[in-house]
Design a protein that fits this description.
The complex is a heterodimer of chains A (394) and B (348). Chain A has 394 residues and is an alpha+beta fold. Chain A is built from eleven helices and ten strands. In chain A, the strands form three sheets. A four-stranded mixed β-sheet of chain A has the order 1-4-5-8. In chain A, strands 2-3-7-6 form a four-stranded antiparallel β-sheet, with no helix packed on it. Chain A has a two-stranded antiparallel sheet with strand order 9-10. In chain A, a hairpin with a 2-residue loop joins strand 2 and strand 3. The longest helix of chain A is centred in the C-terminal third of the chain and has 30 residues. Chain B is of the alpha+beta class. Chain B has a domain of 152 residues: Butyryl-CoA Dehydrogenase, subunit A, domain 3. In chain B, helix 1 runs antiparallel to helix 3, helix 6 packs antiparallel against helix 7 and helix 6 packs antiparallel against helix 10. The chains are: A alpha+beta (394), B alpha+beta (348).
Amino acid sequence: MDLRYTESEQAFRAELRAWLAATLASVGPPPPHDDWPARRAYDLAWQRTLYDAGYAGVDWPAEGGGRGASPVEQLIFKEECERAGAPYVGVNFVGLLHAGPTIIAEGSPAQRERYLPAILRGEEVWCQGFSEPDAGSDLASLRTRAVRDGDDYVVTGSKIWTSHAEVADFCELLVRTGAEGNKGISWLIMPMSSPGIEIAPLRTIEGTTEFAQLYLNEVRVPVANRVGEENDGWRVTMVTLSFERGTAFVGELLEAKRLLGEVADIATRFGLLTHDRSDLELRIGHLRAAFDALWALTKRNVSEAAQTGVPGIGGSVFKLSFSEHAQALGDLAMEVLGAAALSGDPLERDGRPIGNAEQVHNWFKSINLTIAAGTSQVQRNIVAERILGLPRTR
Amino acid sequence: MDFRVGEAERELAEGIRTMVSGRLPLEIVRTREGEERTVTAEEWAALGETGVFALTLPEPEGTGLGLAEATVVFEELGRALVPGPLVGTFLAATTGLVPAAAEGRAFVGVCEGAGEAGATPWLVEHLSSLDAAFFLPDGGIGDGAGLMATIREASTARRVRAPLDPLTPMWHLSELPAAEPVDDPGRRLFRDGAILTGALQVGHAAACLDLAVAYAKERHQFGKPIGSFQAVKHMCADMLVRAEVARAAVHAAACLADAPDVLAAEAEAAGTTPLASMQRAAAGAKLLADEAAVANARTAIQVHGGMGYTWEVPLHLHLKRSFVLARTFGDKAVLSSAVRSDRNTVAA
């Protein structure tokens, strides 16, 4: 085990850091949270900037048009972007992290040609149609039906938790084409301009609208838009989901480290850190140690992925631990803020901003971490059964 | 960068496991529960011969390995509940303060509680075996100078009749013996002490996980293995998470100690000094390892139900040892504060 970066990894970092410093000076602040058309334009413009500099699809293989960087370079990329305050992946998330990698792995040459360059160049936005109102953790029980009619599938059903649906061009869609269970599912590319799609925004507990529910009423999707074989969509999906673990939470982890530092500063300003053995001091120290440890675990998982192609057992372990500690951070922040936690508007104290709004926003976001991308309860089942070998019960 | 546990490191662990199960099997060690000496001079010398105390000393005195390899070895020693002042003897060997320690020809202990000014009690483990002992204020982390005392006889010490860990005999000191200051400019005593104690704790956390999982597979209730119940599964999953996170932290701290260039880069990126970055990593690793060991022992006892509450099942030995270790080289309060030791040097 060794934490030393190779010379080429160090060179990659130095070049990227210099480019970010030079480029970010001319990038404006992001638009308001709920202005989706503006956010689409902003996120796509940043993707185009990355593309022009050769940093688009850093983690995509070269045959998909990406940079084909090693997992360690991907880690460096995310670390440097977070450190420099570069724009987040935003509306490009599904295209870059889910749909694109799936099409690279399982798509036909024509599909790769049609869809991949547009994702990399920041021209088209994707959304995800996987979960359904009655198929969450038990995704394989999904019921949205696709019936063959000539060269089309006719799709009817409903999808939920679809991010950025209102500004998306395409949807990666899981449909039932065969028997019940995971052997009767197909993976389709659905143009969001198709007739029969109704988008109902879904408000989160924070009041924001990044998610939507889709109602699909006899939407015609060409059979040519199927990725992989009919009824083989579950396996195709697993290729996608494996991209969700590993380096997926690097940005969130680095952000959590920064937010914890700000919570400690707020606590100091508010005069709450009065002695070394105080409960607050212990909690701050413990969280800092935990986030440092999770950074070490990230390096371990990335090293594993660099050698074997998959992050090994570390993905679920990371997610379980990170989501728990990120929630502890959110709770700590709300406690430290006191009355300032009751305001989502930025407040000041002694003429200086407190930074309460970002902490409150992060507290809301943290609540989702033990639910999204596999609840912590499902993750624990996976860890217990697949890693520890305890008997399967479902 | 390749931060995986490599092939050579796995072989090293396997070698230590084999050696320990041959020379210090738990059934032999357990016959000494509550006794004044729980590890013999011969066994200590055997550990020394294997190189346990001289791993990081350059050849020919030592094996010339890094602290990272030492954490792999110490994890195995913790897992196997090997008794004795392992970390103190390692430090005495690597600092050269007690040269005989490198071969396991000397026992060197660590005094707990020495950091609290004027506080009693001072408790020293394995005193009647000791040749010398470290007295480290706050586990050696702070500005207070460390001391090393030669232990000649135990006349001023009183043996604790009921030590918390029956395999870690304790003595109560009412006053400090005559001692020499220890020169420790780079705070390496704390660094290596905390990291290796953390490695022992990871071993305890891992052993408890293994015992709990094995029991959950074999113990049947309501006609099924109890490991098929989600309530039990989730406890086991949480144990694995704690052990893996703590292990990554201990390994990362050791790798930083082994690679001054990486440490310097990390400190620069954080706007602090290499010493502060090192203390943060070592303290954080031990904090999480302490927590993982104690929590996993408690959870494993719960998974074992009534059997977990018996003397026969060795889980209480892991629980008690992890408590002892959690009080050397910084307790929770000292470590939590040390994790933030760079806070005065780093800009908000």
